[in-house]
Amino acid sequence: MIRKGGSNWVDGDRFFDRVVELDALEERVREGTHTLLTAQRRMGKTSLVRELLRRLAESGEFDTVFVDLEAAMDPADAVAEIGVQARPLGGAWDRIKGSFANVLREAGDRFEELAVADMRVRLRAGIDAGNWPQRGDAIFSALASDDKPVVLAVDELPILVSRLLKDGTGIVTTQGRQSADEFLSWLRRNGQTHRRQVTMLLSGSVGLEPLLEQAGLSAHANIYSAYDLRPWSEDTAAACLAELAGTYGIGLPPEVGEDMCRRLRCCIPHHVQMFFDKLHEHLRHEGRRNATTDDGERVYLHEMLSVRGQADLQHYEGRLQTVLGKSGYPVALEILSATAVEGRLERDTLELYPVHFAAQEEVGAPSVEGVLHVLEHDGYLEREGGGYRFVSGLLEDWWRGRYGANFEPAIERERGMGR
Which long-range contacts (CB under 8 A, 24 or more apart) does 348-353 make? Predict the structure, then answer.
């Protein structure tokens, strides 16, 4: 029986569906195919990867390493993180420690007793701007010489690449491009050198491809085969809601589940489970166990879209600011607000934006076309006829509630027309 997953990744008994996706990714791993997992935010990429790694490790045929680079600020941080996360791999870990012997000598036999954070600090102390490629090569060689094939899952690589590429305002700099090029070249070279011994699975909460395209570094992605993780179908989402209802003893008639899915429009797994969680809490406070469509509507309007429900959705804004920076984010804010207020972004408005924002563009700043590419690639908007609309009904309603009341289109402000 499935249980609530909260905001964290899930695996095992908490993992629901994705049988087709797991089979496809396992096939890629067995064929030694490096994969770039793409999807909207909150689609369950990390949970899917974690569950895949669990199953592969359980089979006894693979060793697995999961690395989260969200906190990494430079290549040296990334190399240290890969190294320390390989510690469960006995033989490979011994070889990694051997390559850092001069750094670890002070800790001696006590090194294995250190907390992971302290191990990371020790490894990081031996890595600098001059030697990180060599240190990283040694770690990859250690993984490749493991007794079993290794699956190396790297989460939030795009966040690190964005940090390398851009300055504080979100502008791609010459130095940043050089740093990103060097790091991605190193990763690509090791992926090619150790193919089949080490299979990489890359993912992140923002898209890697638009970043590389903006910086003219798209060639670095050609060793990775893209795999698009799609939303649940309404039938799958309804089945998840029904199973959750059964687990927690909630009466959830089919029409209530269908109405919940209709409101979300795009059945992103996290949003489906968040909707159920808030509905469950609402019924608990009401002292009832049977849900109605009125309950679903109330929860959607007053919980999912309320100030209390905004923390999760605000992360959508935060990721855009990270990727687009101070120069590109205002363009995205204008585009998304106009789309939410009007219901869709029409072609004639689109054609005015490049001229309107041209005077504000700086060298290295994302263009209107580039911003649209990010919004489409990362699942905020989708093409509809000659224009765009929101993919997610929840995100559209939330964005309209957050920015719609006082929104005045930039084009009209410029003309002094008002609304």
Answer: 349/387, 349/409, 349/411, 350/387, 350/388, 352/411, 353/411
